[in-house]
Write the structure tokens for this entry.
Amino acid sequence: MLTLLRTLRRLRADVALPAPSRGRSLAVRHVDAGSCNGCEHELTLAMSPYEDIQRYGFGIVASPRHADVLLVTGTVTTRMRGPLLAAYNAMPVPRRVVALGDCALARGVLASASEIVGPVESVLPVDVRVPGCPPSPAAIAQALIDVYET
Amino acid sequence: MTYRDRVVAMLDEGCRFGGLYASGAIVRTVLVAPGGALRLESVAAEDDRVPSLVDVAPAAGWDEREAADLYGVRFDGHEPLRPLVEHDLDLDSWTVPVRGDDAYQVAVGPIHAGVIESGHFRFHVVGDKILHVDARLFYKHRGLERAAEGRSLAEGRAYVQRACAACAVSNSVAYAHACEEVLGLQPSAELARVRTLLLELERAWSHLNDIAAVCAGAGLAAGNTFFAALTERARRLNDRLTGHRFLFDSVQVGGSSLSLDSAAVAAAREELASIAADSKSGWRELLFNSSFQDRLPDIGVVSAGDARTLGAVGPAARASGIGDDARSHADRLAYGLFAPVAPRRVTGDVQARLEQRAVELLQTFDLLDDLFDRPIDPSEARAGSEGARVGLGLVESPRGGTLCAVEHANGRVARVHLRTGSYANWPVVARAAVGNLLPDFPLINKSFELCYACADR
């Protein structure tokens, strides 16, 4: 355990991430509306020591009830439209929606038209758009920081 | 002999069920012989009906349910034929009835509490004890197989690749092999080497990710963060080598355009050696962390018999003592004299599945070190055999054997079917959960770490 912690401390020093400009926080709820799993894997690594989005005050929360931000990945499938709307409607106001990745933005989507509803903005009002297939952990971190300004 | 009799005879000879799909009015079944050869048996539906195989090959359960939902085939003898992809029917139609004193249901998903793909689990429990699980996936069904139809064989690759980022290389190589069989092409030695290399790069980041995931499932934040950092390094290396962190577009039908000079290859070798050394030291820390180790044994046990019956594949199957690994007989790849490795205890529990990843990871780093021994040049597949009506490819993905079948008409995709390691293993996850406590399900699930995307397609 000590070796793990020592290695992680050294890694954090090597990566030398800048300190956040000021203390803020946002609670984020992720919903996969029909992704290829790439955005999820990159979002997971946005929490690794190399990006460490927690340092900007972002936390992934278990319920939309606790969330300020709805982070949506994937093109919206017919089967996920209902659950996506339910999650959004469960959120307190004010709330923000981030469409993460090219599929969520209807760029280069591969699918049968009958199985999908469309991009996230065909279902919800989108505040921040993050292109990329998938967006890198650094791009995800920057997009979340941008939410502070919306 | 009838279609069913032929399949039964092959199963008796030791073949395992490899997949089943509908193609127009024909149902095709793929069997994998003990030596790795793929055998195809087809039957034409009469009045949309064909004989079911679930009684002789229970692993065909999901395949038949999918063919029924998406292609309208009815399977005589598969009763009740519960919906799988079809979500519009009521609860009783797709769940197994579980009744008894204090038995009730816990519905989880499709949206989960963490950063997890969408899928629904219906737990039948008494208190915290799980009696049965009905997994309802396909929330992410995008109709990728149908969308690929009519595309050129080269274009079709994008659809199987996009089925799942985590298995992009495995899916693409299985597809490329299937297409090359259709076209009568055989990969050159250099093409076999570059594809093997890409497959092992995918396995490296994936197994690192899976070890991190089990640490997260057991609540060991330091272990999770440590292995997440190594996963990040592996993905950055992918990006430097191929221009994409998930190795997208690095596999093509009929050839490879990847070119790496000796400096790039040496740098990759050095970084991989460094990641391997760090992962070994991190793994040793996990072994000596008693509170972590205490969470792993006897949880989510899959017996060898259940693994075989349900058609488990990949690390999950090997952790239960089913040694099958498609790398052992991959004549179109560069694995040489490959022999699967096994953990200290082949107990089919969370501990065995985790250790299986750890020992395979070491083997993968060794393979990569060998494969990166010289620069990589563009390469191609050459004419070597007669074309085939149906092309098949079977590749060992990080989650197990992934089968791709391709049928073409005038050089265009007439039908493509992808049956990934995750697809094969989802029914095994449901079985592994039975008898365990509901709060242990996330840990059990993490020990398989299956993709939803490449099951749903």
User: Anything to note?
Assistant: The helical segments of chain A are 2-15, 38-45, 81-89, 137-147. The radius of gyration of chain A is 16 Å. Strands of chain A lie at 26-32, 58-60, 69-73, 76-77, 96-100, 116-118, 128-130.
